[in-house]
Design goal:
Layout (H helix, E strand, L loop, with lengths): L2 E4 L4 E2 L4 E2 L1 H16 L3 E5 L18 H16 L7 E8 L2 E8 L7 E2 L7 E6 L2 E4 L2 H12 L2
Parallel strand pairs: 1-4
Antiparallel strand pairs: 2-3, 4-6, 5-6, 7-8, 8-9
Length: about 150
């Protein structure tokens, strides 16, 4: 419930190109962890646990990868979530994975991205689920005391 794997941050392995929907999958997970009890997103690991590596995202270097990830987080969730998110790059042989630790946020985190509706996500078992407006209002009142 508190760990999720994503093969890549932005690269669609099937289509062989970057895809905003692939980025959105990681951002949904981060938002859901922040709105729930926290958790770890590991980018560069396949669902079977084998290492894909962030190198598949085709950034010039690790720093460019992290800059892109943090820009996505900041622009889609707000700068004030940064104290609740930590990133760490780990080498596994010749490949690198990015561990994103998400702490429990003190405020509701909404996901806002161009081309998508604003949404509120929580963790439900091993998945990230969007709540409709009435569900989100009840959840936010219970979880955040608003």
């Amino acid at each position: 419930d508190s760990v999720e794997y994503k093969s890549t941050l932005r690269w669609d392995l099937r289509a062989g190109k970057t895809n905003p929907a692939v980025e959105r999958a990681s951002l949904k997970t981060i938002a859901a962890f922040l709105n729930s009890s926290g958790g770890f997103l590991v980018i560069g690991l396949r669902d079977d646990g084998s290492v894909e590596g962030i190198e598949s995202d085709r950034f010039a270097n690790d720093d460019k990868f992290l800059l892109h990830l943090w820009t996505l987080i900041r622009t889609s969730m707000g700068r004030d979530v940064s104290p609740y998110v930590r990133t760490l790059l780990e080498k596994h042989g010749d490949k690198t994975v990015c561990v994103v630790q998400c702490l429990r946020s003190l405020r509701p985190v909404f996901l806002r991205q161009p081309g998508f509706d604003e949404e509120f996500f929580i963790r439900v078992g091993p998945s990230s689920n969007a709540l409709d407006i009435s569900e989100a209002l009840v959840y936010i009142a219970d979880r955040f005391g608003e």
